[in-house]
Amino acid sequence: MQPHDLGFSNATACSRPGNAAFVPPPPNHVEECMAALERFIHATDDDLPALIKAGLAHVQFETIHPFLDGNGRLGRLLITLMLRDAGLLREPLLYLSLYFKQHRDTYYRLLNEMRRTGDWEAWLRFFLEGVHEVAEDAVATARSALDLVASNRARIQEGRRASSTLRVHRALLERPVDSINGLAERTSLSGPTVATALKSLEELGFVSEVTGRQRGKIFAYDSYLAVLREGTEEPAG
């Protein structure tokens, strides 16, 4: 496995299999390996908890390495899709990418140790700790977002034209970046009414126009987006 597989900077890219840290199966075995992985994912008689199964499937997918590019992204997406399919997630909100990036050295070391020595326990311990940490962060973010929305709504209700402004505010919760025309369509309000509501939200400091254009303006619910971004920024360096 190489650093670019997770979308990290490829500082130590290898030029040939002889100096690679990991070489995936030969191309003529990829179809067979993927078929076995698919059978494992869909098996219903293995009595494995969904989290354990997702962690194991991720390792197997990264080991098979079936594509020239994008294996890391697809491998992480596979975790989320499996947990969603198992009913552990109602929405695809488990963001493990940042956890893997923050612990990239450990991530690579454990994957390679598992391949060389079969140490599944160490990998699964790391994986489950990551799921726990990310889930706790997601809950904290959701609570912060709910508190922000309630506070913003209370301030909106104190102003004039609160009814139409609240409708635009509610639409921005569903799509935090949108145009006047888009908001008008989704709220069934007229364009001028939406523009007035957005001006009120701008004066309150909740929304800003992001294009600087006179026409085709796009507005962003900045404070809400800031809460959603917390904990998802990549670490410096």
How would you describe what is shown here?
- The protein has 237 residues and is mostly helical.
- The protein has 2 domains: 126 residues, Orthogonal Bundle (Fic-like fold), CATH 1.10.3290; 71 residues, Winged helix-like DNA-binding domain superfamily/Winged helix DNA-binding domain (Arc Repressor Mutant, subunit A), CATH 1.10.10.
- 62% of the residues lie in helices and 4% in strands.
- It has 10 helices and 3 strands, in the order αααααααβααββα.
- The chain has a 3-stranded antiparallel sheet.
- The longest helix has 38 residues.
- The two termini are 21 Å apart.
Brief digest:
The chain has helices spanning 27-42, 50-64, 71-85, 97-102, 104-117, 120-157, 162-174, 180-187, 191-203, 222-229; strands at residues 177-179, 207-209, 218-221. It is mainly alpha-helical. It folds into two domains: 3-128, Fic-like fold; 159-229, Winged helix-like DNA-binding domain superfamily/Winged helix DNA-binding domain (Arc Repressor Mutant, subunit A, Orthogonal Bundle), CATH 1.10.10.
